[in-house]
Each structure stands twice: as C-alpha cells, then as structure tokens.
Amino acid sequence: MPPPADIVKVAIEWPGAFPKLMEIDQKKPLSAIIKEVCEGWSLGNHENFALQIADATNFYITEKNRNDIKNGSILRLTTSPYQTAVQLHERIQSSSMDAKLEALKDLANASRDITFAQEFINLDGISLLTQMVESGTERYQKLQKIMKPCFGDLLSFTLTAFVELMDHGIVSWDTFSVAFIKKIASYVNKSAMDTAVLQRSLAILESMVLNSQDLYHKVAQEITIGQLIPHLQGTDQDIQTYTIAVINALFLKAPEEKRQVSLQRAHTEMAHILAQKQLRSIILSNVIRSPTAINDEMAHQLYVLQVLTFNLLEDRMMTKMDPQDQAQRDIIFELRRIAFDVECEPNSSGSIEKRKSMYTRDYKKLGFINHVNPAVDFTQIPPGMLALDNMLYFARHHQDAYIRIVLENSSREDKHECPFGRSSIELTKMLCEILKVGELPSENCHDFHPMFFTHDRSFEEFFCICIQLLNKTWKEMRATSEDFNKVMQVVREQIMRALTLKPNSLDQFKSRLQNLSYTEILKIRQSERMNQEDFQSRPILELREKIQPEIMELIKQQRLNRLCEGTCFRKISSRRRQDKFWYCRLSPNHKVLHYGDLEESPQGEVPHDSLQDKLPVADIKAVITGKDCPHMKEKGALKQNKEVLELAFSVLYESDEYLNFIAPDKHEYCVWTDGLNALLGKEMTSDYTKSDMDTLLSMEMKLRLLDLENIQIPEAPPPIPKEPSNYDFVYDCN
C-alpha cells in the first residue's frame, strides 16, 4: 500500500551526529516538525533552529516552499535565518581580516536565499555593506601591496553579497548615496582590477541604471561609455558581456537628446588610449571576430546594442519634411545636381516658367511622385526625412551607381522606368520595418547581425545595397509602374532570405543577394508551395476534408509523445544569468504528469524515478495561457515582459491550485499547450498545429495524387448514364 500523499520520507543531518530518517507529515506546522527534530537530538530552544535543503543551494524550508520537499530528500538542521543573520552581521564587522573574509564568503552564499535575505535586510545589512564599500575597505588599502589577493577576495565577496541581496527586489535602488556610486564606478574605471570585483561592479551599475532614472544621472556623471571600452579589449567574455550590458543600459535610459550623441562621446573621450578606434570596431574585432564562440547572453547584449543603435534613426524616421524649409529643399536640389551635373541657375537667367519646367522634367526623371514639389513626397511618416537622408548618402558616397540608376531609368519608356524617388521612400520604410526601428529590444532575442557592426554608417550602406537590388529586380521582372508593389514584395523576400543566412559583412550580404535573383526566388517559391490552382477543385477539397481527421490524430499522437519525453523549464527570476531548472514529463500511459526541480539543465531525458512530484491528468480542470496565468499577475518584471507573457501557461487542478510553466521557446509552448488540450479532449489551436497540418496535409495530398500527374481532374463527377432499355445482359448465377 503506498504511503499517504502528505507523508514525506527524508533524512535529516546535524553536525557531529548520525543522520536521522524521518517521516514528515506535511499537515503539521513546520515549527512542530522542527521541535520534534530538536528533541530527538536533545536540543533546546527549537525556535532558534530551522531546516535547510542539504545541497549546493542551502535554501531554508518555509511554510511557502515546504511542498517542494520530495521523498528521499536530505535536509539539514541549522540555525534559524534570524540567528544566522545576526551572527553574520556581527562577524563581517570583525577586526580580524581572516575572520572578516570568511564571514563575507558565508554571507555571499547565504544571501541567495530570500528567507535569510529578508532577515539580514531587516537588520539594516544593506546599509552596513554599502558603508563597508564606501569607507571600510579604505582601511585595508595600505595592505593591498602585501595582501592583494586577500583584499580582492574581501571586496569580491562584499559586492557578491550585495548583488545577491538586491536581486530579491526587497530594497529599492533609489536609496543609495553618491559616495557608494562613486566607489563602484572607481572599481570599473581602474585599469587593473580583480576580475570578480569588476564583474560585480558592472552588474551593480547596470542594475542601478535600469532600475532608477535618478541613479542613471548619477552613474552617467561618474562613468562614460568611453571609460568602459577598455574592458571590451580583454579576452574574458563575461566581463565583455557585462560591459556591453552597462553600455546598453546607458543608451536605453539616456534622455532623448543625449542618446543621439552617446556614440560620439564614446569615440572621442578615450581617443588617446584607443588610437582613434571606435566602439563599433572594438566590438567587431574583440567580441564578434574573437576566436571564442559567442554565448547566448553575449548574443542577446549584441542584439540589444544593434536595436538601440538603429533606434537612433527613429527621430528622422518620424520627422516630416517642411516643404517651405529651404535647407531641406536644398538637399533635393543637390540630388538633381549630382544626377544631371547641373548647377542651380541664378534668378536672372531665363524665365521663371522655363526654370520650373526644367525642374519638373528633372524631378520626374528622379522618380518623385510630385514632380512640381517633391518635398511633399517626404511628408509621409514613416519614413519621413530618413528616406531623403538615405538618398543623399547614396548620391554622395556611391555617385556612379546613383547616376547610372537615374539616367538608366530616365532613358526607358515611361511604363518601364523604375522611379528612384518613390522606390527609395518605400524601401526606407521597408528596411525600418525589417529592422524594427523604434521598437524596444525583446527580452529573449539573440538575433544580432554581424554585418551591421562592420561599418559606421551600416544602415545607409544597407540601403545603398538594397536600392541597387531593387533596380536590378525591377529589370529582371520587366516591371511597369502597375507592378510596383509586386516588385517590393520580391525585394523584401530577397532581403529577408539573405539576412537569414547571417552574413558576416556587407560585401557578403551583397554577394548573397546576387544569388537570389528574381528567377531564383520563383524557383524557391515553386518548391515551397503547392500549386493552388490544382488543389481548388471540388474532388480535391473533398479529399482534403477526408484526410484532415487522420492528420489531426497524427499530430495529437506526436504532441503526446513529446510530452512523454518531457521538457526542461526555467524558473525565471530577476537575474538572467543564474537560472534554476525544473523538468516535467507525461507518463507513458498518459495518466500522470511527473515533475521536479533540477540543479542544472539536463543533457537528455530525466527518468520518472527522479521526479518525485505527480499530478494526475484526471485532476486537471483547465489550461490557462498568457496574462491570465497566476504567475503573470504577480508583481515584478515578468508582468511587463511581452515575450514571457507569450510563453506562459498554467495547469489548474483540484482545490484551485496551479502548476505554472514558462516555456523555453514558442515551439515548446505550442507543443505543451496542444498536448495538454489533447489530454483534456479539447481542440489543439496553436500556430504550430496549423503549420503542421498544412505541411502534412500538403505532403499527403501530393503522395495520393502522384499517379494523377498531368491528368485533368474534372470539376464535377462524371454524369450517371441512363438506365438500359432492358436487362437481358444480367444472368442468373443460380
């Protein structure tokens, strides 16, 4: 007979004694259980003791997390969080360097537990640590020459404890003094600093900037992007990652007027050290082209930097041209001058009407929609003035290509000319959509493009390559003005396919586009889709309807098989770099969900035996997704994170309890929500199911119709012939 569900069998350790095997009744108060354990070892004052998980985490058992105790767990009897906090509070103030160092090391480890952190913070522990950073460490400055490793460890453990305590979100970041900020910034600004101290200091600066606008101003006064650049020139990828994270934070929180000049500041303030090298080129050579493979966190930070850099274009993208502004109109005159090698005629030469006629003719050749006043073309936002900026850059920096495109099209018949002005405006708008200019970076995306770090004017160069592609595709399609939108669709597909290959340079991007001609795009389209005309007849549609239930059953079985294999889920916290994991899988008979915590991400399937918690499928009432999930309603950063919201789902079971999930990606989200809905007998409605249905149905239809190739399938069934005049041909077999 299995033991009651509320009884958990565990082993409990106590230093200097043999471990005890106990059965813990989860219905009993935790204090009563601790009292019982203490009495077994003849220990008094049971209120001064607590239970911990005896693993690397050493987390305290509380009434909130006691249900996480599994059969076979090893617990440890230890001093209560309050007693431990009091002891460490006293120990870190010891006059002995060795005792202080050991106490700070213990504090750094203990601070990961929120129960201990709350008690230590209640003792004003955060203030004590900040005072030690501000002034206490100065007492040991003289000892650095003879005890440098010890001093580095002392400071490292102090900052580690501080970071761990702040990550629980109990204390506001707005409470810190300028002296503390100056001290942290000084560790970052020093040329030679202990790696651990530097890493913690960078993490603290990033959190300060992201969590408080007031602290942003204080941090910005102490440290500049130029002062951070030397840390990018090392070989430690963790330091480089934290450095770029701080740079991103400074960009993200900078006031709009300052954000536009941040890059220039980074390029000039450290010029004497960097020999005029720029932030972009340093990241390119020391990070992107480093022999060390780029990890996910670094890829995310590079993606964020890429997005924030392109967002500098948003102001121009959303600025309309003022048709009455002479300076802006002069840019259009410059485009005309470069294209046709003419100078602006003085007012006295020729009649006004004649000059207007010349301008109108030239503006028509340049491909503007409004030939009389082309400034009106740039009043549409987006792309606003950004389109005109791109055109001028192309005309000045790729003059031969610009003149060739304009003259080539002005000499064609009207119906076949590719309008340069209109094309440039629509292309700029398209590129802004592709690169998501103006949107905030995604929390989970790692999609950075190395080629955008190879040039200081990467967006403009990107435009120059694409406008030449557009002109080439226009010719290949033999397009007319009526085909403009079709050409833009093809160009968009060419660009997106080339970007998918992640070219390392703009030249490589250009060569990839050369291989994606219009003819090649047609071939790719042909291979990727069925011929819709052949699959719209009534017999084919009836066959599709007949096959669909079989395909849906196949998809359902695949989803359930994936649930049986299981998935490793992350427990998302405020800190991205220290994830905790748990695993969930469906039993082979599809009757029970097995789940449990893991210390690290597994390399394969986790056996059912090691997953002690169970949830019978029969107890599941519903599957909830998105913002309706209980863990998405809690206070914190997750509530504001759109990406996490899209990956969140919960299982509601008896007694109104929930099992909360955050899928690692969209694919796993669809697999699990589909599989759980299938277990409940509900419809599978995910995008992944629709995609699988289309793919499998297409393949099955092609296989079944293989023998009918080149045979015309009639729209209607053949008519039933008339009855014969007699049935003499029927023979009685009897």
Automatic annotation (TrEMBL):
GO molecular function: SH3 domain binding
Domain ELMO: residue ranges: 327-499
SUPFAM superfamilies in UniProt: ARM repeat (SSF48371), PH domain-like (SSF50729)
Keywords, alphabetical: Apoptosis, Cytoplasm, Membrane, Phagocytosis, Phosphoprotein, SH3-binding
GO process annotations (BP): actin filament organization; apoptotic process; cell motility; phagocytosis
Compartments where located: Cytoplasm; Membrane
Gene3D superfamilies attached to this UniProt entry: 6.10.250.810, Leucine-rich Repeat Variant, Pleckstrin-homology domain (PH domain)/Phosphotyrosine-binding domain (PTB), SH3 Domains
Major place of residence: cytoplasm
GO CC annotations on file: cytoplasm; guanyl-nucleotide exchange factor complex; plasma membrane
CDD domains (alphabetical): PH_ELMO1_CED-12
Task of the protein: Involved in cytoskeletal rearrangements required for phagocytosis of apoptotic cells and cell motility. Acts in association with DOCK1 and CRK. Was initially proposed to be required in complex with DOCK1 to activate Rac Rho small GTPases. May enhance the guanine nucleotide exchange factor (GEF) activity of DOCK1.
Protein name: Engulfment and cell motility 1 (ced-12 homolog, C. elegans)
Origin species: Salarias fasciatus
